[in-house]
Amino acid sequence: MKTLVEFIWEQQEQHVGYATGEFSRLLNDIGIAAKIVNRDVNRAGLSGILGSEGTVNVQGESQKKLDVLANNEFIKALRNGKQCAAIISEENEDVVVFDEKTTENAKYIVAIDPLDGSSNIEVNVPIGTIFAIYKRKSLGKIITTEDVLQAGTELVCGGYIIYGSSTMLVYTTGHGVNGFTYDPTCGLFILSHENIKIGETGNIYSINEANYIYFAEGVKRYIKYCQEDDKASNRPYTTRYIGSLVSDFHRNLLRGGIYIYPGTLKNPNGKLRLMYECIPVAFLAEQAGGKASDGYKRILDIQPHHIHQRVPLFIGSKDMVDKAEEMMRIYSPGFAKLIED
Length: 341
Description:
By secondary structure, the protein is an alpha+beta fold. It has eleven helices and 15 strands. It has helices at about 5-15, 20-40, 45, 65-80, 100-105, 145-150, 215-225, 245-255, 275-285, 320-330, 335-340; strands at about 50-55, 60-65, 85-90, 95, 110-115, 125-135, 155-165, 165-170, 180-185, 190-195, 205, 240, 260, 290-295, 315.
C-alpha cells in the first residue's frame, strides 16, 4: 500500500526529475487539516457543533459552525506549515496573508472552500473540501495581484476531500487523477483509486431542476434531451442531484455523467465560485479525460478578476458537456454576453 506522502514523492521524481519538499509538505498540511475536519464532521452531532454560527460570509450565506471550524483548521495547518504565503477562502472576504517571515519564503497560494455542501451537514449527506494550489509569480514579503488572480491554466494542483461513508482525498498535479482513502486505524491516506478516468459519456445528469423556469433556453433543451427515449444513446438518462458539488462531482467522476450549475435569468453567473470551486474540479475533470465549461468556453481559460468571482459550470463526461454546449450556442447565444458582463 502506498501512502499519500510516498505517492507525492514518487510522482515528483517521475515527472519533475526530483522531489520538492515544499510542495510535498504543503499537500501533507492539507491532509493533516482534513483529518481534523473529518474527526469533527463525524462527531458533530455529539460535540454541539451542528447548526448556524449566527454569522454570514462574504457571499451573504449563513455560516454553519462547521464552516467556521473547518476554515480555521485549514488556515492554521497551512500557516504552521510555512509553505503557503496566502489563502483565498470562501469564508473570508479578503485574502488571508500570513506574516512577512512566512510569505518571504513561501512559494504557494491556496484557494479553498473549506466545507462544501455545508447546508447538508445536519442531514448526514456527504460534504467536502475543495482546494486549488497556485505557485506565486513573485517572491518576497509582498503578495501581489498577479500572485492571487491566476487562471486555471496556471494551476499547480487541484483536489478535494470528501467526507462520506469513507473519507477520500482526490488530487491531480497535471499527471492524472488519483484518490486516497483515509484509514483511521493508522491515521494515513492510502492510495485506493489509481489513475481515475471518467467515461466519454455517461447516463447521469445532475442539476437542480427546481430552478427550471429561470434557466436559459439552452439548459432547458438539454434537460429535455436527457429525458428523451433513445436506445442508441442510452437515454433517458438518470437524474441524481445531492446539492453538494463535491458529492455530485465525485459520483460522476467515478461513474460518468454531467453536473450542471447554470446561470439563471436572475443570476447569469450562477452560484459557484471560480477560483476555489470551479477551477480545481475543472482541472480534475480534464485530467480524468472529461471536460469543464461555462456553457461556451473552457473554465481553465477564464481569467479571474475577483477572488469570489462566480461562473456557471457544466462539467463531467466530455460528450455530455459537448452536447450541452451545443444546446447553449444554438438556443441561448445571447446568454454568453450576460455571463461576460
